[in-house]
Design a protein that fits this description.
The complex is a heterodimer.
Chain A lengths: L1 E3 L2 E4 L3 H12 L4 E5 L15 E2 L10 H11 L6 H21 L13 E9 L4 E7 L5 H15 L3 E4 L1 E9 L8 E9 L5 E5 L2 E4 L20 H8 L4 E2 L4 E8 L9 H4 L3 E3 L20 H13 L10 E4 L4 H8 L1 H11 L8 E10 L3 E2 L5 E3 L6 E7 L4 E2 L11 H21 L13 H11 L8 H15 L6 H18 L13 H25 L17 H4 L1 E8 L2 E8 L13
Parallel strand pairs in A: 1-10, 2-3, 2-11, 3-7, 11-19, 17-20
Antiparallel strand pairs in A: 4-6, 5-6, 8-9, 9-10, 12-21, 13-16, 14-15, 15-16, 18-19, 21-22
Helix pairs in contact in A: 1-4, 1-10, 2-3, 3-10, 5-14, 12-13, 12-14, 13-14
Chain B lengths: L1 E8 L9 E8 L6 H11 L19 E4 L2 E4 L11 E5 L6 E3 L2 E2 L2 H9 L19 H5 L18 H5 L5 H12 L7 H8 L13 H5 L6 H16 L1
Parallel strand pairs in B: 1-5
Antiparallel strand pairs in B: 1-2, 3-4, 3-5, 6-7
Classes of the chains: A alpha/beta, B alpha+beta.
């Protein structure tokens, strides 16, 4: 089929749904394509809240939120974007409430707010109550609320249509081509469909599945990011990947920072609150990169629980009422996945691969940019975790992922509507589905003697976790690069066990494996080149931040022999870089 | 430990009818059924199809019939089930392949109850106020993840597939009892027709099936009472 639309949204998480809503309100003929059902998107698993300087419980200002975001990102944040984030956080949260989001309430009926890591009053003085929340299922309520509004406004959804290629008119983006649509694989029957469109938004989320221990959904394989890379668009700051301190041991499921925001503590084997040695002012509410490193230090010093590779998160002293009313879901997670009762026992935790700070470079209007001069790719947009605006710099603060996808999802929708009013719809593209058809058929028709996708996936996840995790060094990264390239080679010969057309997840997983390998290579190459430590990128052989040389964004272009790196400057408007202490 | 895993397989391109296949696996007692399915797909038969995403009971993708009860595969452990485990698609929905079922009818019913806030008043500058008590009134039904475990466990739904079903009523309840909403009358009208709330026979299967612990039968009774109250 060839479907003509004026706007296509790829991905139905928070960013995609809000963009679709804006487009629908403007009367733009829009389709949302998702490889899942919209309510299965990963936004739904966000727990702790969404920060906005509402000041409902104590004094707060968007300038403080902006400062915390810049400092939290170890000054690699583009400050023009951080200003947009912090200012518009307030109106987007209010708008969500108007849409019906069931926030927890203060006694006088306002949106309740709680503390969160790295969010402070008066430029770093003390933790501030900034996170607006709905128990510990804030993301679930955001996803539900936005989906509800899309239904109300008649947005058209193509559920279980997986986008497998991007279409351009007038040449590839590097040659000045404009976005012209996408090719999607219908999961139910394996048919390829062309969706022509003036504007295309990529809102496909992250790619944490390249790591062994991750909070990320199985579906987070970086589809949109990899497709941009394959079409010659560079990827920005991919070496910065956040490890969240409190994942469930072994499997990485997230236990929200809200547990610490409500007063939960981290303990080592001796029962010490070890964070007092690493961040005396903010303690457990220091930013995630610092807490995760502190945990690794404790484990290395033999102070992990029983000498093992995990520590304790303790919420017992919060009492039953707080735990059951404000942290019900994560309490259940501890019970189900660890067999631990948080009301009476401390919960074993270890850092888990959580969030990609890097991704598809965009400007503050969510337009994709393709070079060091920020040249816009006409008609192509990106928002949410797959994009790099960059509001998170080298390390994202808790809740700012939700702020990011709300603020920039909304901006994307508005800018797409404006853009769609100014251009003609692209005409039919000859053989639009041919390249991806050939690619998928090559996988499907291979003889059943090769390795399985699962084997490649496990080996990639192991090397990324062990060599490209919380701590890195040149030797580990060099070894990782060789391994990733070996896996890319081997992945070209994997065979699958399903040659059918109906709901063939084996084929789709093999295809996604290619995306993850591309992105892993870019991550490692960027990390190897960046000979400093900044935010989540911590090089033991280069332990200091080096602003003179490295206060700049990485741009990785696809080349014949792997990624080629270029750099672009950081936007600094209000806050000069300073040493980062908490 | 070793487990015998039995899966009801069906590939419309190859099979006349669904049939059971057996798999022997060595697993950890703390593994979830989803881990077992992933293991079968990775090591024994790549053609096994199932939906999964978040893997911890929030996205609602992997509801299926496990040891004769509707549950999420990612939320039930081997040690809770024992050595013999059977997995089949959710009952009462058309099977696409293996344990993947056709969900469009289910989501159609969800849409039919106007699952969105209806309030035509001008929006205030800041948030609408809502007391913690008013917020608590509908807290339970905000937890629904639309996994379909409840609706497909309901004998009234099996007997009459047109029945709107517990999940849609839960979603309607979430708005009917929200102090900010003004659409209760429209929704109660929709739910009072012959395929609405009166089909509920308070069998409680839905409550047992709900992975989010929602007291669904109570929500349905509250909606029925509201209909009766309105008529009275």
């Amino acid at each position: 089929m060839d479907y003509p639309f004026d706007a296509i949204v790829v991905g139905a998480g928070g960013a995609g749904l809000w963009a679709a809503l804006e487009l629908a309100r403007e009367g733009v003929n829009t389709a949302v394509l998702t490889k899942l059902y919209p309510t299965r998107s990963h936004t739904g698993t966000a727990q702790g809240g969404v920060c906005a300087a509402l000041g409902n419980l104590e004094e707060d200002h968007w300038e403080w939120h902006m400062f915390d975001t810049v400092k939290g990102g170890d000054y690699l944040v583009d400050q023009d974007a951080a200003e947009v984030l912090a200012r518009e956080a307030i109106e987007t949260v209010i708008e969500l409430e108007h849409m019906g989001l069931p926030f927890n309430r203060t006694p006088d009926g306002k949106i309740d707010q709680r503390k969160f890591g790295g969010h402070t009053s008066n430029y770093g003085e003390a933790a501030v109550r900034r996170s607006c929340f709905a128990a510990d299922r804030t993301g679930h309520m955001i996803l539900q609320t936005l989906y509800q509004q899309c239904i109300k406004h008649g947005v058209r959804f193509f559920d279980e249509y997986q986008v497998v290629d991007l279409l351009f008119e007038g040449g590839e983006p590097a040659k000045g081509g404009r976005a012209a649509g996408v090719v999607a694989y219908r999961v139910a029957d394996g048919q390829l469909h062309t969706f022509r469109s003036k504007a295309v938004l990529l809102a496909t989320g992250g790619f944490g599945r390249m790591f062994r221990i991750t909070s990320n959904a199985h579906s987070l394989t970086g589809d949109g990011v990899a497709l941009c890379y394959r079409h010659g668009i560079p990827l920005e700051d991919m070496e910065f990947f956040q490890f969240h301190p409190t994942g469930i041991v072994g499997i990485g499921i997230l236990l929200s920072e809200a547990a610490r925001g409500e007063g939960g503590t981290l303990l080592n084997d001796k029962g010490e609150r070890f964070m007092e040695r690493y961040a005396p002012k903010l303690m457990e509410l220091a930013p995630r990169d610092m807490v995760s490193r502190a945990m690794y230090q404790e484990i290395r010093a033999g102070r992990g629980i029983g000498g093992k590779d995990y520590l304790y998160l303790d919420v017992r002293h919060l009492g039953r009422k707080v735990i059951e009313e404000k942290l019900p879901d994560i309490t259940e997670f501890a019970r189900i996945y660890e067999g631990v009762e948080p009301l009476t026992e401390p919960v074993p935790v270890q850092p888990t691969a959580h969030y990609a700070m890097g991704g598809i470079p965009t400007n503050v209007s969510a337009e994709v940019v393709r070079d060091e001069k920020n040249t816009v790719v006409p008609g192509l947009f990106a928002a949410g975790e797959c994009a790099c605006v960059s509001v998170h710099g080298a390390n994202r603060l808790g809740t700012n992922s939700l702020v990011d996808l709300l603020v920039f999802g909304r901006r994307a929708g508005r800018q797409m509507a404006r853009y769609a009013g100014t251009v003609e719809r692209p005409g039919p593209i000859a053989d639009a589905t041919a390249p991806v058809h050939a690619q998928l058929e090559a996988i499907r028709s291979r003889e059943s003697k090769g390795e399985s996708v699962a084997k490649i996936r496990h080996e990639l996840a192991d090397v990324m976790m062990d060599n490209v995790g919380v701590y890195r060094d040149g030797r580990l990264l060099t070894a990782a690069l060789a391994k990733v390239r070996e896996l890319e080679e081997r992945n070209g010969a994997v065979s699958i066990g399903d040659c059918g057309t109906v709901f063939n997840t084996d084929l789709l997983e093999a295809n996604e494996m290619g995306y993850l390998l591309d992105l892993a290579e870019v991550t490692v190459v960027g990390a190897l080149a960046r000979t400093e430590s900044r935010g989540a990128h911590s090089r033991e052989d280069f332990p200091e931040r080096n602003d003179a040389r490295w206060l700049k964004h990485t741009l990785a272009y696809r080349g014949p022999k792997g990624p080629t790196l270029k750099y672009k400057p950081v936007s600094i408007t209000r806050f000069e870089p300073k040493p980062r202490t908490y | 430990m070793n487990v015998d895993l039995r899966i009801l397989r069906y590939d419309p391109e190859r099979d006349q009818a669904p049939h059971w296949e057996n798999y022997q696996l060595t697993v950890d007692p703390m593994d979830r059924v989803l881990d077992l399915l992933i293991k079968v797909k990775a090591e024994q038969d790549g053609s096994l199809s199932f939906r999964r995403s978040c893997g911890h009971g929030i996205c609602g993708s992997d509801a299926m019939l496990i040891n004769n009860r509707n549950r999420l595969a990612c939320r039930i452990r081997v040690d809770q089930l024992g050595r013999k485990i059977s997995v089949a698609p959710l009952p009462g929905l058309p099977v696409v392949k293996d344990v993947v079922v056709e969900m469009s009818g289910f989501f159609g019913k969800y849409r039919s109850v106007k699952p969105y806030l209806i309030n035509e008043q001008p929006e205030p500058e800041r948030e609408r106020r809502q007391s913690p008590e008013d917020r608590a009134r509908f807290d339970d039904t905000t937890k629904c993840i639309l996994c379909a475990a409840c609706t497909t466990s309901c004998p009234s739904f099996w007997a009459r597939p047109e029945y709107v079903g517990p999940a849609a009523i839960v979603q309607a309840h979430r708005f009917i009892f929200d102090s900010r909403d003004e659409g209760a009358a429209e929704r109660l009208e929709i739910l009072s027709d012959e395929d609405g709330v009166w089909r509920c026979r308070t069998i409680f299967n839905c409550v047992e099936a709900c992975p989010r612990g929602i007291n669904i039968t109570r929500a349905i009774l509250e909606v029925s009472s509201a209909i009766v109250g309105r008529r009275g």
